[in-house]
Automatic annotation (TrEMBL), chains A, B:
Ranges for domain HTH marR-type: 10-140
GO BP field: response to stress
Keyword Transcription: yes
Location(s) in or outside the cell: Cytoplasm
Taxon lineage: Bacteria, Bacillati, Bacillota, Bacilli, Bacillales
Protein name from the UniProt record: DNA-binding transcriptional regulator, MarR family
Organism: Salimicrobium halophilum
Length: 149, 149
DNA sequence: CTAATTTTAATTGTGCACAATTAAATAGTA
DNA sequence: TACTATTTAATTGTGCACAATTAAAATTAG
């Protein structure tokens, strides 16, 4: 590719990533409206539906988010009675985040979301798996490069 | 795939998108530090280096952003003397965004960024083109679905 | 030509996202 | 033991991102 072409928006892989992520997140909005949560809050619930409780640090490792993002978001979710936050007895530094009864019940309401979202995507399973694989490789590569800077 | 598996973070294509986008954006940070701009501001400059001036609406169409995001960002960039904003004479509703001399000069400093970034990615040209093509298809699909909601 | 409609940005309010700093608890060490 | 270093969250400050509303200008319809 010519040097000038590399400066064109059209040819930038990261712009495609950036734009697609935001448009896909918008598709979640109506599906999450019923639960009254945002997409990042949905990710927190997905993590907790797998394992609850998790410390803020563990949650951050799974979602690639730090306490500066998580702490205020978790406080909002606590106010909505989806989760509870409490200090660990064994290690008072750790704040554990656990599902409430309401947070657990939300899982049933959310069970249809993955399929409803996939209905919006005109891609077959192989394409999606392929895309996910490529993205995960890119993600791990970026994390490697990023961590020693 | 089993219904339960679809609820796992690990299996969600949109989570891969979300995490990868943010990690890639972090890789830009040190490259853009010299220009003293953020990644979204870099996207504005890329658009203007192709065509200047552009109206706020045209810029929004290229970047998939609305005036609620652009207006304050453009004001910050104007304060840094990278761009200028002025009303169109022909249509007073339109605000035109044009490069300043400093904004034009920044293009030379930024010319190395695409290659520097690609150095951080362990993917060949074909893989990248393939990924971009898939993402663009997903993007257009999402925009179609999203617009009538 | 006037009134209703549409287009265009700006504004308001909420919620991430993240770098940098702070503070408390724990672990490691001389 | 006391002293240092590390780990963990919270806090602070800045900058997107977007829905909803507002206001001005231009277009369209009657």
């Amino acid at each position: 590719m010519m040097a000038e072409d590399k400066m064109k928006l059209e040819n930038q892989i990261c712009f495609s990533l950036y734009a697609t992520t935001r448009e896909m997140t918008k598709l979640y909005r109506p599906l999450l409206a019923d639960l009254n949560i945002t997409y990042p809050q949905y990710l927190v619930l997905l993590a907790l539906w797998e394992t609850s409780p998790l410390s803020v640090k563990e949650l951050g490792e799974r979602l690639y988010l730090d306490s500066g993002t998580l702490t205020p978001m978790l406080k909002r979710m606590e106010k909505e009675n989806l989760i509870e936050r409490y200090r660990s007895k064994e290690d008072e530094r750790r704040v554990l985040v656990g599902l409430t009864e309401e947070g657990r019940k939300a899982e049933e309401k959310a069970a249809c979301i993955p399929d409803l979202l996939l209905d919006n995507i005109d891609m077959n399973e192989e394409e999606i798996l392929n895309l996910k694989h490529t993205l995960n490789r890119m993600l791990e590569g970026a994390r490697q490069k990023g961590e020693h800077q």
